[in-house]
Amino acid sequence: MKTLEILGRSGVSRIVIGSSIGQLEEFCNLERSVIITDQTVRGLHGDLFPQCAVIEIGEGEESKTLKTVEWIYERFLELEVDRSTLVIGIGGGIVCDVTGFTASTYNRGIHFGFVPTTLLAQVDASIGGKNGVNFQRYKNLIGTINQPEFVLCDFDLLKTLPLSELKNGFAEVIKHGLIGDARLFSFLEEYGKKVLDLEPEAIERVVSDSLNVKARIVNMDEMEKGERRKLNFGHTIGHAIEKITGIKHGMAVSIGMVVAARLSQDKSMLSTRETQRIETVLKEFGLPLEIKAGKEAIIDAIKKDKKRTGHEINFVLLNGIGNAEVVPVRIKELEEVMDDLCQYR
Amino acid sequence: MKTLEILGRSGVSRIVIGSSIGQLEEFCNLERSVIITDQTVRGLHGDLFPQCAVIEIGEGEESKTLKTVEWIYERFLELEVDRSTLVIGIGGGIVCDVTGFTASTYNRGIHFGFVPTTLLAQVDASIGGKNGVNFQRYKNLIGTINQPEFVLCDFDLLKTLPLSELKNGFAEVIKHGLIGDARLFSFLEEYGKKVLDLEPEAIERVVSDSLNVKARIVNMDEMEKGERRKLNFGHTIGHAIEKITGIKHGMAVSIGMVVAARLSQDKSMLSTRETQRIETVLKEFGLPLEIKAGKEAIIDAIKKDKKRTGHEINFVLLNGIGNAEVVPVRIKELEEVMDDLCQYR
Prior knowledge:
2 copies of one chain form a homodimer.
Chain A: E1 2-8, E2 11-17, E3 33-38, H1 39-45, E4 53-57, H2 66-78, E5 86-91, H3 93-105, E6 111-116, H4 119-125, E7 133-135, E8 138-142, E9 150-153, H5 163-180, H6 182-196, H7 200-220, H8 235-245, H9 249-266, H10 272-284, H11 295-305, E10 312-318, E11 324-330, H12 331-341
Parallel strand pairs in A: 2-9, 3-4, 3-5, 5-6, 6-9
Antiparallel strand pairs in A: 1-2, 7-8, 10-11
């Protein structure tokens, strides 16, 4: 078991790695607590939950709305939730995002923490303090940045995840290696199979190293004014692909990372050998390298997302494996790289 | 013109005292800005607004809801508001509270500032970073604490206010003197008439001193963990009276301050002479000293508000004029003081 700390504006956030949900009471005061979760998670792990009131929200992006948040406020009033209450989100990214936003805005902010149950939530969504909900067709348009008091990562919870959901998380683990930890990336190259099999030591190592990268970056720049943008590596293209094709976040980010790696290579920031190593690891983890969409639709979506009409877009590129840098890229350069990667022209 | 600063978690908030709305551009970048206001304020001062999009919200507590907030999000999308936009709330407490919450949650927080148009908003509501909306029958249940980037206090705007609205603000000015600035209180005693007549030097002095007290306290304790509670002087009883009788905030707080002063006197923290001085000033500013409600209803409302069933309640009392202290008070003591002040038994 390891502990990391994030020093946010609102206080210290403690990330406990490799503990068990049964030990929750060691890290927080459960006397007056309320759990927010969903039906699937409760069905799989409900017998491990501490004894307290449970609020069950709907599943999927369509539940990540202000309507759900208002519905939780109402439950909070029924349960007489006040500033002495601790709210615990137990679930994947959606449960964590909704829990964080609701707790951050009820009574102008009450105590909250997370037990993330997916790999993606453990290595990414649950830490960093970003929370929120979708509004109309915009993802995460409404939210705040407010750190949870604790995040407890229990690897046993990952055993019930389908492979596709694990891959979703591994894309972010690979990203963390690429932008900030070359040794983590080498470990993934060497021990990919052990990691995919969730061998205890291997999974602890990669989740822990991955969280280290994210915690280090968030500690430097909680409010996303500079350094934190590096966490968007693979995400500019990734979000556009996700929107257009509807594939899972991790899959889309994988393709986004390939595009960013090739752009880095074109700018002589990354060697051909390094680009190959990246593509090999992504493949090993069952992640896609090619885009099943036309480049025009993707570039349009990027321009809209960034509200940019100019000829350049700021991109996170790699200056060698383990080292990210924000670099302006001409749309033309981007189109050239994408010509090689788009299956449909 | 004077400037004060509040150092919040999210950055520096600059309070400009005695400037004019026409000089707004000296304090902020108006290039990409959006105004939130209401019909009355726009009608009175709209010709002074900078040239930009205006969003007009409804008036009164019934407009201070999540529905209004969602409606503003929609306008923001239409106006292509993004992280480079500055949102300016021009109006009273409700406009400031709603603007602050909407801007703090859109895109996980965008730039915002205030031009408060009521005395109450200038000396109280617009500074300190508390924002939010009502939910069901609970005032300000949903909100955050997030400082505006600037607050511009233009005293000319106060000239259109009805006397009852001015009194509403003076109750908070008197409170600020009582809890943190004995000289401000003496000034109010001596120059009450000049202040009530809004004589430029007098009003600048009292608004400025009043904001100084609030800024000092918020700087010490933005998140209301200790020191900031002193700002609740007169408000424990005040909120209960406001809820039960429906009288204006300032009027209710005035009575709350009388109760708190008498409790302080009973505990030998305040002399009889000091209590008299307080009551004289409140009267001079046209504020009420007596309660037009039965004490039981008020005490019930307090217990509910504080979710307390015990025999004691924490009260902000005065240890001499200009010096506040949080002290536990027995319900019985409170009842005795209220027996003298309630017109209906």
